[in-house]
Amino acid sequence: MVSSAKLSFLLFLASSLFIHGALAEIVCEDLPKDVCAFAIASSGKRCLLENYAAKDGNMEYQCRTSEVVVEKMAEYIETDKCVRACGVDRNSVGISSDSLMEPQFTAKLCSSACYQNCPNIVDLYFNLAAGEGVFLPDLCEAQRSNPHRAMAELMSSGAASGPVSSEAAYTLNDDAPAPSYV
Predict the structure, then answer these.
(1) What predicted TM-score, i.e. pTM, was given to this entire model?
(2) CA 20 to 30 Å from 178, out of 6, 48, 119, 169?
(3) Looking at the record's lineage, which domain of life comes first (predicted)?
(4) Minimum mean pLDDT among 27-31, 134-138, 150-154, 171-175: which range?
């Protein structure tokens, strides 16, 4: 049986989402955890899933607004179809460029189902790759033509040695052409 406090909370959450939906406004903190990751708020900032230890010791999750602004994309929640096509997980806390080192992940990310149809996820990993000194379109081309060579090139590019400074990543991102989604 549902307690009145839980019922009140559920009604509040449902009405909050309805009101924001009616106003076409997405606020990360109002999103349920199962749609948080790969969502972009109305402000243009990425939503991210965070975890914390609750008072009872259990791990809880919450959706937060990051400081990362996505140019030319706001009020966007990634589709389940794209999440599956790109091989990403909505329940992961934080993301890392380490996944680019996994051939199976890179193959899914670079597949036409993902790369040409899921601009939000591709933009995110484009920026992660750039922060490691890797140009995602080149990595995907190498992945399509010779997957083993793609991994060897990625490892020899210095991406495996650790991240570059945020200033260098910013410079790389500004100078690099935007990814093509067509």
Answers:
(1) 0.69
(2) 48
(3) Eukaryota
(4) 171-175
